Amino acid sequence: QVQLVQSGAEVKKPGASVKVSCKASGYTFTDYYMHWVRQAPGQGLEWMGWINPNSGGTDYAQKFQGRVTMTRDTSISTAYMDLSRLKSDDTAVYYCAKDLSYYGSVSCPDYWGQGTLVTVSS
Amino acid sequence: EIVMTQSPATLSVSPGERATLSCRASQSVSSNLAWYQQKPGQPPRLLIYVTSTRATGIPARFSGSGSGTEFTLTISSLQSEDFALYYCQQYNNWPWTFGQGTKVEIK
């Protein structure tokens, strides 16, 4: 069965960076795009971007351009999301989510990780 | 970016009744529309994609319809486990965007 297991909660100071990992199992990691979505406390869902685990190609929402980097390590079926220059309003649960469509196209996520709470506070 | 607007914000329904949730896009998203259910402390769960296709394991009481800019999620007979937050999401134009959610609560 498909599983996405994310790294644990983080507390960071403003201006710092955070790197969240997402280990995939139960499917061929390189066959499906991986999305990153965040949710601030009590708020809705916000798309950050996606990575093609096969090629390493990425696309980021404009809001996060220059601050976010999505990478992967295919040898351990793990995706990473790195967010820099953190601000207090980056406090949120960050989710990785596997794309529904097989190889080569991007659609919507079907399976989601459990989420990683990142708290930004001085 | 495409703005997704859901209505109502809160829907009060009795168990066994029908619930109808609406989602409007600021421009056409063709049929590239998904619905998710989210419960407190859990990640979203995919219910419907390409407007009307149920995801794996989703009961038949969930159905989706619409096209272009107007979409509907219908839950034909609400069960206790269906009281939750529901989001629509377009994946036609980057960046993908979500609606603000409809909370379905027990009446």
Description of the structure:
The complex is a heterodimer of chains A (122) and B (107). Chain A is an all-beta fold. Chain A is built from no helices and eleven strands. Chain A has strands spanning 3-6, 10-12, 18-25, 34-39, 45-51, 58-60, 68-73, 78-83, 92-99, 109-112, 116-120. In chain A, strands 2, 4, 5, 6, 9, 10 and 11 form a seven-stranded mixed beta sheet that branches. Chain A is globular. Chain B has 107 residues and is mostly beta strands. Chain B has no helices and eleven strands. In chain B, the strands form two sheets. In chain B, strands 2, 4, 5, 6, 9, 10 and 11 form a seven-stranded mixed beta sheet that branches. Chain B has a four-stranded antiparallel beta sheet with strand order 1-3-8-7, with no helix packed on it. In chain B, strand 5 and strand 6 (53-54) form a beta hairpin. The radius of gyration of chain B is 13 Å and the shape is globular. Chain B starts with a strand and ends with a strand.
Principal-axes shape call of chain A? globular
**Oligomerization state:** heterodimer
The averaged pLDDT of chain B comes out at: 96
Distance between the termini of chain B: 35 Å
Mind describing the biggest β-sheet of chain A? Answer: 7 strands, mixed
> Uncertain regions of chain A: pLDDT < 50 for 5+ in a row?
none
Structural class label of chain B: mainly beta
Count the DSSP helices of chain A.
Answer: 0
Number of strands of chain A: 11
Helicity range of chain A: under 10%
Total count of helical runs of at least 4 residues of chain B: 0
Q: Which chains share the greatest interface?
A: A-B, 23 and 21 residues
Mean pLDDT of chain A: 96
What Rg of chain A is obtained from the alpha carbons, in whole angstroms? Answer: 14 Å
Q: What structural category characterises the helix and strand content of chain A?
A: mainly beta
Low-confidence stretches of chain B: none
Strand elements of chain B, count: 11
Cα radius of gyration of chain B in angstroms: 13 Å
Distance between the termini of chain A: 40 Å
